[in-house]
Specification:
Blueprint (H helix, E strand, L loop, with lengths): L22 H6 L4 E4 L3 E4 H16 L8 E5 L4 H12 L3 E4 L6 H11 L3 E5 L3 H4 L11 E5 L17 E4 H7 L14 E6 L9 E5 H16 L12 E2 L8 H4 L1 H8 L2 E4 L5 H10 L4 E4 L1 H14 L6 E5 L6 H9 L2 E8 L6 E4 L11 H8 L4 E2 L4 E5 L14 E6 L11 H7 L5 E9 L5 E6 L4 E3 L2 E3 L1 H9 L4 E11 L3 E10 L8 H13 L11 E4 L13 H8 L4
Parallel strand pairs: 1-11, 3-4, 3-5, 4-8, 5-6, 6-7, 10-11, 12-13, 13-14, 24-25
Antiparallel strand pairs: 1-2, 8-9, 14-15, 15-16, 17-18, 18-19, 19-20, 21-22, 23-24
Helix pairs in contact: 2-3, 2-6, 7-9, 10-11
């Protein structure tokens, strides 16, 4: 049956393109600031002109729609400009994970086949021996903060360098008419830092990124002041811009017209100085970075003045949450994956709920959170059917939302596995409480099976983190002749607690057993004190490496 209503012939169809995220800020935030560490400071009016200039620079390189532009840089104003100029010009932005090994970095470049590489001079040694004659890269745009010139770096390949970024922008026109096109056009791609096999390319369309930005802004905007986002906030990422678009926040912050601060390379003193001097009020990071800035603040005997901080990537333990609260950080948890763009759930605080104890408040902040707007989250059993709510109904968390990646770049088989039976499979073991809170209990690959019983490594880590001497902790399963697997606890002690014994730490787990929190077989069989724990390129605990390190020490 035909639709009884029709639009006017001249009505604008309004495709959901990244350029539409700029509309409000172009009207109301022209004098708001963008800050790059201690190196550059300019207004949104300048930002929009610079985005246009970068688009003109790229146009002069005779690229075609769908060509890939790769960026290797620290968190900078240049990265922010590329977030918009590249996809708005109908090219694909590849955010290169520069913390991967050089071999993996080159793998991702060879796989995505960019035509243009925007290269920070700090990473030139990583790619200077790259076989450019066999490469898709035709043009290199030189990015530099330290006066390093391109001469002598690339040898015979120097002719590919079209110029230095700021000089190119200065010479380019500051006006550009960004076209309309299909909102399902691919906008960005980046590569997951999986601990097995080659990294997989995740990609997102304009439509997906616009919807994620809107859902992120709406979900955060509905939270109370002490954890949500408002127009007066100052935003700074402490999750790299190469990793899941810095959790989508640069898109969202620009859409809202917030003051934004970009720190460059993450150094504890720089991060802390920027937070204090620029009055940063909201950020996000993995627990490793939180530990780093907490250490800096403690060394200065300073606090963070109510800084709102979303933790993701790895579990926020209750011990670390308490340490953050003690330094005046309003810390809470978000959940997502590379494939989810990434935000799926957030811990929310109700302003009218009854007073709760400090311990209950900390526990809540460490929960995986409730699904944000437009997310369909379910827990499935082995039969690929929902198992219901409650702690007794545990299974794999599966998802639907309009911004989830639909597949992997040039890897359809992996995409089919990801979306088996019509929902995205997270490979996270979870249950959903009756009030909607999601509780991740472990990764499928990290859960420990001992004597036929499942042990949650995350649950044991949370308990051990409560010991005041513990700075960091990871629990892994190692082979055991009698039980199949047994948990091993790897402990990093705080500098002033080096005389702590394993019996002291074990006592915390024994107390949890006596209170019925964990079963007796959940107490690790061994505790090892280490100087640090292996991390992935984005700061998560690398349990695969840990298992390889300790597999023979059972």
């Amino acid at each position: 049956m035909p639709n009884a209503y029709s639009s006017a012939p001249s009505a604008y169809d309004y495709p959901l393109l990244i350029k539409q995220l700029l509309n409000r800020a172009k009207t109301v935030s022209l004098e708001q600031e963008i800050v790059y560490a201690d190196k550059k400071r300019f207004t949104y009016k300048d930002l929009f002109a610079r985005i246009n200039r970068l688009a003109n620079v790229l146009t002069d390189l005779n690229l075609n729609a769908g060509d890939v532009v790769a960026v290797m840089d620290w968190d900078s104003h240049r990265y922010l400009e590329s977030y918009f100029a590249v996809p708005m010009s109908e090219y694909i932005l590849q955010t290169v994970n520069i913390r991967l090994s050089p071999e993996k970095v080159l793998y991702t470049i060879n796989h995505a086949k960019p035509k243009v590489l925007m290269l920070n001079s700090e990473f030139a040694p990583m790619v200077k021996d790259y076989q450019f004659e066999n490469s898709s890269i035709e043009h290199i745009i030189w990015l530099d903060d330290d006066g390093v010139t391109v001469e002598g770096v690339f040898g015979d390949s120097q002719d590919r360098v079209v110029g230095e970024y700021e000089a190119l922008l200065e010479a380019a026109d500051d006006s550009f008419d960004f076209p309309d096109f299909d909102e399902n056009t691919i906008a960005t791609t980046f590569y997951t830092s999986g601990t097995t096999g080659d990294p997989k390319g995740v990609f997102f369309s304009h439509r997906q990124l616009v919807l994620h930005s809107l859902a992120e802004a709406a979900s955060l905007g509905m939270l109370p002041t002490k954890q949500g986002v408002s127009y007066g906030d100052v935003y700074m990422p402490m999750t790299p811009m190469f990793h899941v678009h810095a959790w989508g926040f640069p898109f969202t912050a620009t859409m809202a017209g917030l003051k934004q601060v970009y720190p460059g390379r993450y150094a504890p003193d720089t991060l802390f100085d920027l937070i204090i001097n620029e009055k940063v009020s909201i950020t996000h990071c993995v627990p490793t970075i939180l530990q780093m800035v907490l250490g800096e603040a403690q060394s200065r005997n300073a606090s963070f003045n109510g800084l709102k901080m979303i933790i993701g990537g790895s579990k926020l333990t209750e011990g670390l949450a308490k340490a953050a609260l003690a330094q005046d950080i309003e810390v809470y948890t978000g959940y997502g994956m590379s494939e989810t763009a990434p935000i799926i759930s957030l811990t929310d605080f109700s302003i009218d709920e009854p007073e709760m104890s400090i311990d209950d408040d900390v526990t809540r902040r460490c929960m995986t959170g409730k699904p944000i707007l437009m997310v369909d989250a379910q827990v499935w059993g082995d039969n690929n059917k929902p198992v219901g709510t409650g702690k007794e109904h545990t299974g794999e968390l599966v998802l639907r939302a309009p911004w989830l990646t639909q597949s992997y770049l040039k890897n359809d088989d992996a995409g089919k596995e990801l979306w088996e039976h019509g929902y995205m499979h997270t490979q996270d073991i979870a249950y959903i409480r009756e009030d909607g809170y999601i509780k991740i209990t472990d990764r499928l690959k990290d859960v420990i099976k001992s004597g036929g019983e499942w042990i949650s490594s995350l649950e044991i880590e949370t308990i051990l983190s409560l010991h005041p001497a513990v700075s960091d902790v990871s629990v892994i399963g190692i082979p055991d002749e009698q039980w199949g697997e047994r948990p091993l606890a790897l402990i990093v002690l705080k500098p002033d607690c080096q005389d702590t014994s394993s019996d002291d730490i074990k006592a915390v787990a024994e107390q949890a057993v006596s209170k019925g929190i964990i079963p007796k077989y959940g107490i690790p069989s061994d505790f090892k004190f280490v100087d640090d724990l292996p991390k992935t390129s984005v700061g998560k605990h690398d349990k695969k490496v840990m298992r390889e390190m300790y597999i023979d020490q059972a």
